[in-house]
Amino acid sequence: MQVGLMAPQGWKGEYDGWDAAEAWARTVALARQAEALGFESLWVFDHFHTVPQPTDEITFEGFSVLTALAMATTRVRLGHMVVCTGFRNPALTAKLSSTIDVISGGRFELGIGAGWKEEEWRAYGYGFPTLSERMGAFGDHLEIITRMFGPGRAAYDGTYAHVRGAINMPKGIQSRIPIIVGGNGERRTAGYAIKYADELNYVFLEADEIAARMTAVRDRCVSEGRDPATLRFSLYTRDEAVRSAGQARIDYLAGMAAIGLDRVVCFPTRWDPTLDAQASFAEDCRAAGLTLTAASVSAATA
């Protein structure tokens, strides 16, 4: 099982009261250390206002952060947990993704979901469509992004979005930028993952429920004509589960590996964005039997 880390950006209050320049310097330092420690990937949120309540505190924008981290690192995979597709035209999302893939040397993965944080949508002028509408738009957006990543010009007329002869050059360095569908929905979200994605990313679920869901999704892959071995599964873990060093955290990580997850993404520096806290998490990962990748491994360029 691979282990990725959230890069602090302020959304969960980790930079409350910080000077912005000092906070950014810490994010870069933690990203470089994460790579040196052998973590597989770095991730950011796609949000504008802090949680649980919107405050006048730092939240760095996700695509900007990843572009900068692409220049500050050489090996780790990079992506969002996850893009709120409603914040951007899907053709623009594909264009941004392809450009970051080039900048990073072929290390970008597009994690994407339908979005949920209502006050943030309304504050930024997006309105807030119903869940059904947001899910419908998500499907159209995935169709467009897939076509933008594919050969030639993209054309598609959907209910919620369209492209007509859209050019996306360069398309990235990887032969195909991986798409990760994020969310716990068992019908439409899982269905979109089966149709469009390389990976289905769950949020906060426990091991026994994940195991049952993976079995159900694999069975559905077979019934829908997809080889289930081609769909990966990952989890953004509960922050509290990885907060404190020690045996409980070690057992939690080992338990997630035991059910066959391909990757977990964790935020151990949420409450303590320090190099020591991140190094301690690496020690617990190794104690759980997880392999962290040597820092000398070159970036993947599929």
Textual characterization of the structure:
With 302 residues, the chain is α/β, with parallel strands linked by helices. The protein has helices at 20-37, 62-72, 90-103, 118-123, 131-149, 188-196, 207-223, 247-258, 275-287; strands at residues 2-6, 41-44, 77-80, 83-84, 108-113, 154-157, 162-166, 179-182, 199-203, 232-236, 263-266. The strands form two sheets. The chain has an eight-stranded parallel β-barrel with strand order 1-2-3-5-8-9-10-11, surrounded by five helices. α1 runs parallel beside α9 (275-287). The longest helix is centred in the middle third of the chain and has 19 residues, at 131-149. It is globular and about 50 Å long. Mean pLDDT is 96; it is low at 296-302.
Structural class: alpha/beta
Beta percentage is: 15-25%
Distance between the termini: 20 Å
Share in helix: 25-40%
Which regions contain 5 or more consecutive residues with pLDDT less than 50? 296-302
Oligomer: single chain
Mean pLDDT comes to 96
Coarse morphology: globular
C-alpha-based Rg, rounded: 19 Å
Would you report the number of β strands? 11
Strand order of the largest sheet: 1-2-3-5-8-9-10-11
H/E topology pattern? EHEHEEHEHHEEEHEHEHEH
Please report the number of helical segments: 9
Query: Biggest β-sheet: count, sense, barrel?
Result: 8 strands, parallel, barrel
